[in-house]
Amino acid sequence: MSGFVEKGDILVATDVWPVLQKRGLISFDAFMDFAGGSRIVHKRGRSVFRFEIGERAFYLKRNRLHRVELWKKLTRGKLPPRSALQEWESIKAVAGAGISTVTPVAFGERTFLGAETASFTVTEELYGARPLDEIVRERFQQAGSFYEKRSVIAKVAELARKLHNAGMNHQDFYLNHFFLDDEGEFYLIDLQRVQQNSCVPRRYRIKDLAQLNYSAWYYGGFTSSDRMRFLFRYLGRKKLTTEDKLLVRQIIAKTERIARHDVKLMARRRKRGELP
Fold first, then answer.
1. Which long-range contacts (CB under 8 A, 24 or more apart) does 195-200 make?
2. Domain stops at, among 124, 148, 182
3. What is the per-residue pLDDT across 177-222, written as a single tens digit (0 to 9) for each?
4. Which end of the chain is more exposed for a tag (fewer CB within 10 A), N or C?
């Protein structure tokens, strides 16, 4: 990560500061009120916009405290997460573990009594990289993709093992959060929910692996043999132990629950107007 400097109420990469100034992005309010670019994501209390300055492209992720989300957290005895700060710290931690990820550009947040009320992060585009789900849909359902698919499976398994061995779990471990560039390098993105511990709790490891398994099923092109190949590489074994077989059953059970939940979630998001 490059050097950063505080500019009033925001933290910004030194080398990108002159670029952002050209668009008037010089304060917390300027980022939160910025109306340029194209909307990529719209969820309750959160949005993501892509914008360009000259030949460079950036992603602006904004979080605003939403009354429904606030109520959900309070009824569970929790405070709303400091989403931008968590993502900012997670980017540094993931990169520190030797996993390629997005380049952080700017960060800002406002809090009240320790709870985040509004925040943002800016990251630079991964030039020449594409989301893995697009690649899977295009290539892995066709004949002749065998060797490329095996290479991808091995690299994703190594990334997952490296992440978990570093005491981190992702919580949104789906194929669209893996990016692959023309040089064959993988990147892990969307890190705002990453958890950091000395050791990843078993249920969170199962959750990550089940999300990945569900995603592989959803986009297609992966066989049972592909899944076993991933598991052997992830575990670093050539034969499953009794404990490994229990892990497989738990991953399958969690995958089925994710599938049922996904149907309900998509229906709710369409009802709220977040999806077409």
1. 195/168, 195/169, 195/171, 196/89, 196/90, 196/93, 196/167, 196/168, 197/167, 197/168, 198/167, 199/167, 200/164, 200/167, 200/168, 200/169
2. 124
3. 999 999 999 999 999 999 999 999 999 999 999 999 999 999 888 9
4. C
